[in-house]
Amino acid sequence: MVSSSDRQPLLIGKKPDWFKVRREHGKNYVELKQIMRSKGLHTVCEEARCPNIYECWNKRTATFMILGDRCSRACRFCSVAWGRPNTVDETEPAKVAHAVEQMGLKFAVVTSVNRDELPDGGAWIFAETIREIRERLPDCGIEVLTPDFMGNWDALQTVLDAAPDVLNHNIETVPRLFRPVQPWSNYQRSLDFFEEARKRDSDMITKSGLMVGLGEDKDEVVEVMKEMRERDVDILTLGQYLPPSKRHYPLHRYYAPEEFEELKEIGEGMGFGHVESGPMVRSSYHAGDQVAELRRMRAQKSGRLQA
């Protein structure tokens, strides 16, 4: 890990060279945008201002955001709008599935805003979306990136019963920064989420992600990674935090690519099945590839054990 004295200082208004994004409005990008707008759907790619949107959409991959575009939590790192939640659209699962079919996706990622005012936190809509996609495209892989459901494990069970391929829940940051960064979330509850998921479905692929650059230090990041592995989390994503605006939580510093590489090596040494680590990495970045690699490694390991 680069020492604190060697870290690149924060230069307001200027990003390091490795953050250059090619804004390519290709044919696929335009078509996907038209599909989303025609069905009144939302994507976290747009709402969270993901820097990878051009790359992903031009490869015909997108992360659907269900349950409206208004979040019940005002986390200071996120650009998704906060306010009075939208009315739940019970036809949304079918709309998402139709869009997935039109796009010809082999792997779909579905996330949501927080809906803490709903008794199940929106778990039923997650489950129905999984079922609708399965009905239209049985071979399409499905990852769900869910809230913590405020510790309602019956809601978690509703999602598990629909059998997604991957259950993702982002812890986001280290315990010390939870209150200033995401005051309505709870670190222990997020850990419990994975413990409950593993108890209820021992074969489920689980995944979580962390942002870096908010003022945490290496030891804190490594400790969170360790606690994830103690809950048997399979896939880890690590990416650079970028404030959506000056009103959001301030950026402390940029991590260099070699620091991400070191964290990747540490994670692999802990036993994560796959670690996606880099400045531009976001939770759903290369999601289908991550699962394919994890399954390939498991199959290889199983073959060795049988031999």
Which structural traits does this protein have?
TIM Barrel; 11 helices; disordered N terminus; alpha/beta; globular; 307 residues; eight-stranded mixed sheet
**Structural class, from secondary structure content?**
alpha/beta
Q: What name does CATH use for the topology?
A: TIM Barrel
CATH class descriptor? Alpha Beta
Query: How much helicity do the residues have?
Result: 40-55%
CATH architecture type: Alpha-Beta Barrel
Number of strands: 8
Could you say which overall geometry the principal axes of the C-alpha atoms support? globular
Measured by DSSP, the beta-strand proportion falls in: 5-15%
Instruction: Please tell me the overall pLDDT.
Output: 86
Counting DSSP H or I runs of 4 or more residues, the number of helices is 11
Give an overview of the whole structure.
- With 307 residues, this protein is α/β, with parallel strands linked by helices.
- The chain has one domain (21-306): Alpha-Beta Barrel (TIM Barrel), CATH 3.20.20.70.
- It contains eleven helices and eight strands.
- An eight-stranded mixed beta sheet has the order 1-2-3-4-5-6-7-8, sandwiched between helices.
- The longest helix has 20 residues, at 287-306.
- The radius of gyration is 19 Å and the shape is globular.
- Mean pLDDT is 86; it is low at 1-12.
